[in-house]
Amino acid sequence: MTMTAVLLLVLVVCVLYLALRVRALESAVSTLARIVNKPRRRDRAIRKEIEELESKLEQMDDAIAHGYLADTNDFNRADEIREKLDRRLRALAPRQTAPPVPEPPPDPPRAGL
User: Any residues with CB less than 8 A from the CB of 84 and at least 6 apart, and which?
Assistant: First the structure.
C-alpha cells in the first residue's frame, strides 16, 4: 500500500511539474507572438498616418482648386506635411544595412609595355 501511495504522490508531482512547464511554454509563445507581431502593428500605424497625411494634402489641393486663396501659412503647413510624409515613408521602407560600395573601374590596358 505504501508503495502505491508513493508512486501516486510521484505521479501527482510529475503532473504538476508538467502543468507548470506547459504554462511557461504558453507564456513564452505568447511573448514571441507579441515580438513578431510588433513590426506589423507599427507598419499598420505608419500606413494609417501616411493615409491621413495624404488626405490632408489632397484636401488642401482641392480647396485651392475650388478657389481658396492660399497664404504663406498654408504653404508652410503643406511643406511640413510633405516632410512628415517623407519621414513616414522612409520609416516604412525596408532597412538597408549599408549602401553597396561600387567597385573601381578596371585599369585600361597600357600600350607599348
Answer: 53
